Amino acid sequence: MSRLAVWKFASCDGCQLTLLDCEDELLSVAAQVDIAYFLEASSDRGAGPYDLSLVEGSITTPDDLERIKHVRRVSKHLVTIGACATAGGVQALRDLADVREFAAVVYARPDYIRTLDRSTPVSAHVPVDFELRGCPIDRGQLLEIIGAFLAGRRPVVPAHSVCVECKARGNPCVLAAHGTPCLGPVTQAGCGALCPAFNRGCFGCFGPMESPNAAALNARLRAAGMDDDELGRVYRTFNVTTFGSSSDA
Amino acid sequence: MTHKTIRVGGLTRVEGEGALLVRAHDGRITDLQLRIYEPPRFFEALLRGRAFTEPPDITARICGICPVAYQMSACQALESICGVTVEGTLRDLRLLLYYGEWIESHALHIYLLHAPDFLGYPGGVAMAADHRPLVERGLALKKAGNELVAAIGGRAIHPINVRLGGFYRAPVDLTPIAERLRHALDAALATVEWVSGFDFPDVEHDYRFLALQHPAEYAILSGDVAVSDGTFFPVTEWPYHVVEEQVPHSTALHARLDGLPGYLTGPLARYALNAPQLSPLALRAAADAGLGRVCRNPFRSIVVRAVEIVHACEEALRLIDRYTPPDQPALPVTARPGVGHGASEAPRGALYHRYRIDDVGLIAEADIVPPTAQNQARIEADLHALLQPRLDLPVPELTELCERAIRNHDPCISCSAHFLDLHLHHD
Amino acid sequence: MIPAPYRVRSRRPDRADTVTLTLEPVEGTCPPFLPGQFTMLYAPGVGEIPISISGRARSGGYVQTIRAVGAVSRALCRMRRGDIVGVRGPFGTSWDLAAAHGLDVVVAAGGLGLAPLRPVIRELEAHGVRYGRISLIAGTRTPATLMYPRELARWGRDFDVQVTVDHPDRAWKGPTGLITKLVGRIVFEPRRTYAFVCGPEVMMRATAEELLRRGVPAERIALSLERNMKCGIGRCGHCQLGPLFTCLDGPVLTYDRVSALMEVKQL
Amino acid sequence: MEQAVLTSLDPLIGALREHGYAVVGPTVRDGVIRFCELGSAADLPAGWTDEQAPGAYRLREGGEPVFGFAASPDSVKRFTHPPRSTLFRMRDGVPEAVPVEAPKVALLGVRACDLAGLAVQDRVFLGGRYPDEAYRARRAALFLIAVNCAVPGGTCFCASMNTGPRATSGFDLALTELTGPHRFLAESGSERGATLLEALPSRPATDADRQAARQVSETAEQRMGRHVELDGVKERLTERRESPVWNEIASRCLTCANCTMVCPTCFCATIEDGTDLADGSASRAERWDSCFTLEFTELGGAPVRSSGAARYRQWLTHKFSTWVDQFGTYGCVGCGRCITWCPTGIDITEELERLR
Ligand SMILES: Cc1cc2nc3c(=O)[nH]c(=O)nc-3n(C[C@H](O)[C@H](O)[C@H](O)COP(=O)(O)OP(=O)(O)OC[C@H]3O[C@@H](n4cnc5c(N)ncnc54)[C@H](O)[C@@H]3O)c2cc1C
Ligand code: SF4
Ligand code: SF4
Ligand code: SF4
Predict the structure, then answer these.
(1) Searching chain D, which residue's CA lies closest to the CA of residue C266?
(2) Closest Cα of chain A to B80: distance in Å?
(3) Chain D within 8 Å of A35 (Cβ-Cβ)?
(4) Are A105 and A195 in a shared domain?
(5) One domain for residues A142 and A166
(6) Secondary structure letter of residue C61 according to DSSP
(7) Rounded distance, CA C31 to CA C17, Å?
């Protein structure tokens, strides 16, 4: 039986919770896969090596820097899950600021806090076999990833825009029909175009799509009433650095 | 010699990362530290300079287990600055969303994290090998909660449909979810019966409870702050009463209430302060379970959680029954400078937010006090009281007991925006 | 779009990363195929890819040679005797052997390109009298990656067979470098020659251009094109090359129809 | 061809229901006029109109007519070639076809361009060597009630494509909305259409009704928002393969694939093979794909059309040139959806002009 491990670094637990949220599939998955290491769900700590490690969270402390290398050593396949692990997460906003000043805002004795200047994705430190995007990840995509790695197939996780899913779902485009700013055209699909389905513009929580043309979209978003500050913020929330310089407003 | 050390490294079946270290000398505990090594994520700092509309989405990311709690406390704090109060159907929708999270979070804790302690399994999945129908019932209950959250919020984790003033889109028809909730209500009642039959260690602590209180309902979405010693104050006065301080061993801050450490927030507190306001079925279930008027045994918090699921299901059904879609999915909210406070009852206890908005609509200051930070000192006190008379037990047994005692409080370590491994040293 | 279940009747590893399978339908017999056609091979639960038919086994089954480059081809290469594979097809156009009757024949293969050409060579072997001079030139990365070495040695008794390698080892005595160099080493009368070319696109273009330069008419230079294919029946749209559906109008196409298209970058 | 005048559409909707059809037509929802199941004629968007421009759609109150608006955001493709469908499941080496879902749907209010789009799809899906039987079944389950356009949108150009504004074939019934007094001239285009029409309460059409209906279509033709010059376009596009215009367009193109998704004729699809974690069965689904995605042309680990320019070129060239080679018709019917729904408002009619 293949052995699965779930690891957590700096994160909200939401992505690993997604596995427990597969209520209909959890027990059958557990019948197919030995969930050997998953602290959030079990006090059994099966020793490595593992066939598949799911890693949540970004690397923000010196200890974690060492721990992720350990995880890589004991894992045949390593898949990062979520915006924290694939892009540094919302906590990567520290990258744009002075982390000591950040610590001083929150803690009276920032000197007690051991932290790195930047919140970095796992791929910045060790080779990663697949990155599953989203803040949080999509449940269906998580099951697909586990299935694909076990079956030795290429995961069906398209890198095209949210717009493709949006149209497949039959949403009227909120950008064209209501002038609501939407990052769908530059954001990778995976959520099923959730926000537009709720009459809200996509805010990019799955990170950039395969060939984002933010410059072209920004012209449109400005016309829809977003100013440069807003543009700067909207790209730098849950995937702070990955939309890249093209997101510079 | 009589030095003894207990270490529990990497607490399991809690959300987030923590450890416990206990040192004892000559049969006396000399040091007890619940350590939270969840890496600090500096939410309060990174919120500064963001638009006043953003905290509901950003603070949701503090915790994937109870994002709705963050969204609700944030919305209310910010709305109060802008002079907006969300009432009527929109408030009902917020409550529904919140009940969904309660059902989901409590079911997760009871079935997958806590019950395995009583039945002797390492986790819910392992427990399913012998008790499959039970675990399936728990998962179905959890799913009902998640579906309620998704029906209103768009998805179970980090809902996307919440905004200041209400929602981006109001659901048209909630009757399909009602069907599921009726089954969930039965499952919740069965859960109370099941967990009330567990074998509980005979432990009681003299807790000082803190919970929100609302004149018209078992407080969850909003209320004033009530303390079991009779103190009562509006949320706006929170900063005068609750002061957070930093302890070296943890990235979580410890909170003191009116100068004293170690108060408790969460299900036991809510039950102690507000039980009469529980829904009829929940009240009856509590009575049948023999909870009494006040429950001071932390191990029995699992029963209170189950009762709260009953309440959440019953109330949610009532709200769905009277639901008709609102004319507008949200009230307009325009930024204005000022300071605002918001608090709500996360599944783990009171969650307080305070924001200051500057004159261009950006966040100038943010302060977040999550339940686990408030409870940390009290959990340490629980452990102290529990361990002191039992120090002679073998370390593996002690370790297990400690883990259980911690899990009683369902500490959500990710939540410690600013927040927890057992290391027990008998030196 | 529903594959028929076939069973792996035999499996022969050719090289480190290449395997030749013989496939037979679980029920009935293999539909007829023409040399150059392909099937869509499905590794259950993993995916489906186009693979040329490189011959018919004595038992009647399809002989198909697969190189493990990605998930599906790896899964197919791992198949054992008795395993189930899904098969759709055969699809696509074929090598027009009749058009080569009475003409000199040049068969040019780059790497795995030898696989789709194998049925052509078998026909030339069987009915050599129908054709003029027959030459087979092949390029490969290293001597170890040469396809069908035993058959090549046999074919060498009937035709002029020449092989060049990109990276020779110590033992290699033959030519090195581009396959286009071999065009100058074989004997054919350009105006009365038919060429069958298969390999990587750059190799095919270079070979076709060289043949053209020597006077082989473009309509007598046949290539087998490769494009992304999901359906094999002109419906998914992926394999379009200008006006062509590579799966329906190809994969075998003569150079007069595709040279202009192949020149355009990213068409 | 039977003709008659209807004063209300409710009997029509009722009759279709009785025949077991779900009646789907335009209604105001989510700030647009889109096709949804109708309860009665009261769900139709009477008094509403739309304004369509490159990258922009606005709903507006617009007087009396019931059908006073242009193309809907979504095309008929959704009903004939759904966004995703499961093709088969495989257990223990035995593939089993998944039954085709072909619900009986009456589409009320399709336009001439929609019918032209269906005709193009018929050639694509049924015209070749490998007809798509699922398409055939879904297509056969449609009852089509056309409405002749009175108010073409700002992005419409069916007149230039010779596909509208008047529906001439491919429908079961066609309606022309007339005013003063408000009524519909109905004509049948099929036997079942004629039978249905006969059973409806109506009065015979007069010359005045017919004259008024002709007038509606003539006026509509003169009000086309956009125009395309077809003369020589097929050859021109292949000659312009290396034009610098493609790069310029690419600077505005998001490669988001909206245009291909809303296009009534775009048929490209991809195959998704997978396994069920719980029971180990395998399955295959077909889902809409687009020539704007990178995976579409992936070969040997890299896309053939890596640049946005190459992808846009494929799209436009396919529509107006290579489609003709492949299917003997243009791949564009002039509905203007790709113009309206392009988030950056790229306008194919304008780009064709620039490529002249
Ligand atoms: C008409 C036709 C006939 C064919 N006949 C044969 C045949 O007879 N035998 C045969 O072996 N093949 C043949 N092919 C090619 C075969 O179809 C492909 O090799 C196959 O589709 C690969 O699928 P896959 O799932 O195994 O690999 P995929 O996972 O789709 O990978 C495809 C390619 O990408 C490469 N790749 C993957 N990831 C990367 C990366 N990160 N960087 C660089 N490259 C990468 C792989 O090496 C591989 O080449 C034919 C193709 C066509 C169109
Ligand atoms: S990516 Fe988002 S959902 Fe996942 S762990 Fe990080 S903050 Fe939570
Ligand atoms: S709403 Fe957003 S995601 Fe949907 S089509 Fe429009 S731009 Fe794309
Ligand atoms: S639409 Fe965008 S922001 Fe919303 S859930 Fe999807 S990827 Fe995230």
Answers:
(1) D305
(2) 23
(3) no
(4) no
(5) no
(6) P
(7) 28
Query: Is it true that the peptide bond before A155 is cis, omega within 30 degrees of 0?
Result: no
Alpha carbon distance D234, D327 (integer Å): 13
**Domain CATH code at residue A77:** 3.40.50.700
* Residues A16 and A105 reside in one and the same domain: yes
Give bridge partners of residue D288 from the DSSP assignment: D269
Q: C267–D270: do the CB atoms touch at under 8 Å?
A: no
Alpha helices in B154-174, H assignment, sequence order = none
Q: Are residues C51 and C105 in the same domain?
A: no
- Write down the ipTM of this complex: 0.94
pLDDT tens-place values along chain A, 249 residues long: 899 999 999 999 999 999 999 999 999 888 888 988 888 777 777 788 999 999 999 999 898 999 999 999 999 999 999 999 999 999 888 888 777 777 777 766 666 667 788 899 999 999 999 999 999 999 999 999 999 998 899 999 999 999 999 999 999 999 999 999 999 999 999 999 999 999 999 999 999 999 999 999 999 999 888 998 999 898 988 988 888 654 444
**Domain limits at C210?**
98-263
Asked if residue C137 and residue C39 are part of one domain, the reply reads no
Report the distance separating Cα B254 and Cα B250, nearest Å. 9
- Give the end of a domain, one of C91, C107, C131: C91
CATH number at C236 reads 3.40.50.80
Q: Do B12 and A97 make contact, defined as CB atoms within 8 angstroms? A: no
* Sign of the dihedral defined by the CA atoms of residues D313, D316, D317, D323, in that order: positive
Cβ density class A153-186: b for 16+ within 10 Å, e for less: bebbbbbbbbbbbbbbebbbbbbbbbbbbbbbbb
- Do A17 and B48 lie within an 8 Å CB cutoff? no
Contacts of A197 in chain B (CB under 8 A): 154
List alpha helices for chain A, DSSP H: 14-20, 26-32, 62-73, 82-87, 99-106, 139-151, 162-169, 174-178, 194-197, 214-223, 228-235
User: Are A130 and A167 found together in one domain?
Assistant: no
Any A CB within 8 A of D272 CB: yes
DSSP D98: P
CB-CB neighbours of B369 under 10 Å: 25
Domain of C65: which CATH number?
2.40.30.10
Give the burial class of B234: count Cβ atoms within 10 A of its Cβ; 0-12 exposed, 13-18 middle, 19 or more buried.
exposed
Residue A80: which domain range? 2-151
A30 touches chain D (CB under 8 A): no
- Ranges under pLDDT 50 in chain D: none
Structural domains present in chain B: 3-40+379-426 (no CATH), 43-375 (1.10.645.10)
Is the CB–ligand 3 distance for residue A196 below 6 Å? yes
Tell me, in angstroms, the distance from the centre of ligand 3 to residue A123's CA.
29
Please check whether residues A124 and A228 belong to one and the same domain: no
Q: Is the pLDDT of residue B18 over 90?
A: no
Q: B27-71: per-residue pLDDT in tens? A: 888 888 877 666 677 888 889 999 999 999 999 999 999 999 999
Q: Supply B200's token pair.
A: 């509980």
- Whether residues A29 and A137 fall in one domain: yes
Query: Quick check: A200 and B17 CB within 8 A?
Result: no
Report the residue of A21, A112, A120, A142 to disrupt the B interface, i.e. the one with the largest count of B CBs within 10 Å. Answer: A21
Residue B15 carries which DSSP code?
B
Is A81 a domain residue?
yes
Q: Is the peptide bond before B276 cis (omega within 30 degrees of 0)?
A: no
Residues B218, B315: Cα–Cα separation, whole Å: 10
pLDDT value at position A14?
Answer: 94
Distance A184 CA to ligand 3 centre (A): 5
Residue nearest atom 8 of ligand 4, based on CA coordinates: A205
Q: In terms of CA atoms, which chain A residue is nearest residue D273?
A: A156
